[in-house]
Amino acid sequence: MTATVLTAPAAPTPPAQPAPRRAPARSSRLRVQRALLTATVVLIVLVQVYPLVWLLLTSFRTASDFAGGNPFALPSDLTLDNYSRAFATGNLGLNVLNSLIVTLGASALIVVAGMMAAFALQVLGFRLSGFVRALFLLGIIVPVQIALVPLFIDYSRVGLLDTHLSMIIPLAAFALPMAVYLFSSFYEYIPREMYEAASLDGAGPYRIFGQITLPLSLNTIITVVLVNSIFIWNDFIFANTFVLSDGLKTIPLGLQNYIGAMGNTDWTATFAAVCVTVTPLLLVFLVLNKAMINGLESGATKG
Length: 303
Fold this sequence. Notes:
By secondary structure, the chain is mostly helical. It has 13 helices and no strands. The chain starts with 22 loop residues before the first helix and ends in a 5-residue tail after the last helix. One of its GO terms (biological process) is transmembrane transport. The chain crosses the membrane at residues 35-57, 100-124, 131-153, 165-187, 208-233, 267-288.
């Protein structure tokens, strides 16, 4: 007779304990991070915007109010005489025209030479193209001061001294390495199939450059122009070295006209002149800043 072994029923498995909720702590941490980020952004904006606001308000203050009161206080009286005096004291209109000529000329030379050089290095390619590109990039670290004396001597020999070209050529030359780098970085992500299809259709390098590469480079062109225009518009070292006559002075040199005898400076008229010269750059930057950001990102992301 077989003995039957009785086994005790298995104990029921206790229900799983729910994991402790961490959502409130995480949500609180995210709120703190967002608050700190917002405060940081607001602080940066205030630091950047406050000088411009102060400059604009001071340009409308009377000379007596600025000299006798707190220069950082709100103006008690507003006047437009500072702007009329700014144009009367110095050749502000002529200075703006000269800066515009130099900026447009140098920017055009930078874009044309930079695009062609980058197209030859990145798209067409040739033996030692990488070495040539490295030489262009080395130009970024070359200080402009070492070229002042040799350029002054050469300009005086060939008759370019005291001309617009004496400023346009070196400004474009020293900005060319960065332009080549930006254009090359963008051309790297243009699909090669587009160039191959155009070649099969009988398009030569000039047609490929004009009908494919140039239209696709619009954002990069805007980026190169805006980045370099700021430095060209505010250039002082080349203008001060190569310009000898008052008729060719750019804005940075023209602002010296507001310093009178014995170092006396008409500050309110100077601030009005600075407002006139800064406004065009601000307007252009505000209108084209989105295209500039897209141009900077085009070399970093493929698409």
